[in-house]
Amino acid sequence: MYEVHEAFEAQKEAYKQQEEAFKRQEDLIRERDLAIQEELIKYCKFLQENDAKKARAEKRFQEEKEARLKKQQEISSLEEQLQDLQKNSSKLDKKVQALKKYEDYLESVIKAHPDQYSDQGELLKRHEILEKSNQTLREHQTKLEEDLEELRIASAQFEKQRNEEILTLNNELASLTKDLDDVDKQKNKLQSQVEDSSRQASHKNLNLGRILMAVDNIHTRCEEGIVKIKEDAKKETEKVEKIDTKKDKTNPTVKKDKDGKDKKEGGGQDEEDNFMTKAERALKKLEDIAAMMGDFQEIINKCKTDTTASKKK
Which residues contact 237 (CB under 8 A, 6 or more apart)? Predict the structure, then answer.
């Protein structure tokens, strides 16, 4: 045990030295890891800065490119405008050359009528007034023609509408006549159905009355049977009491009858003509009949039991 203990202590010391070596290695690895992480952080910052610079440069390049394209478009637009202006200028020159003859004509008119027209402006003003009057008269004529055409169209539409209304009314009259015939047929059919329903209702009422009378009859017979059974039981009890009194006069036994209260229907109430009320009463009586039949069965079983016991004695 001493050798084992020594070996255990030696092994324990070796494990301790290994653990210390492992801890030193772990510290070295941790320091290297921290240094690598710092280098990675610096490298990441460097990459981020380069990416930012690259993004700014690309953005600026794109902006410069868009500005160059915009300027080129503006140059193209201005060149097109210049071409349009040159074309308009040439057109105006041609128009001036074409109107030159009209100017010469106006000058000749003024020279021919110097007492009426003093210059081209007065002549043009007179022409403008006459042109407006002519335009007004033409517009008035056009309006009158349009009004006349509208009246013709309205007259034709009115006539067409009246014809369509007459045709529609004739169709509605025919449809209403057909509907009236259908209603008469439906009326006759419904009347026959009402008569059939009345006959069926009378037949059902007759059957219901018979059923109600049969239920009342059975209920009355059950009540009479209960009363009779109670009277017979009372007589039998009195006989038994007399026999017991003769046998033992010192200890007479007094047997009390347990008379049940008969359930009687209220006869003072007037019966209603409503079959629902009669049906509810019939159901109540059927429940009473079922209860009475159960009581009859118990009495019969008890009588059989008492008979068997008395035979054995």
Answer: 255, 257
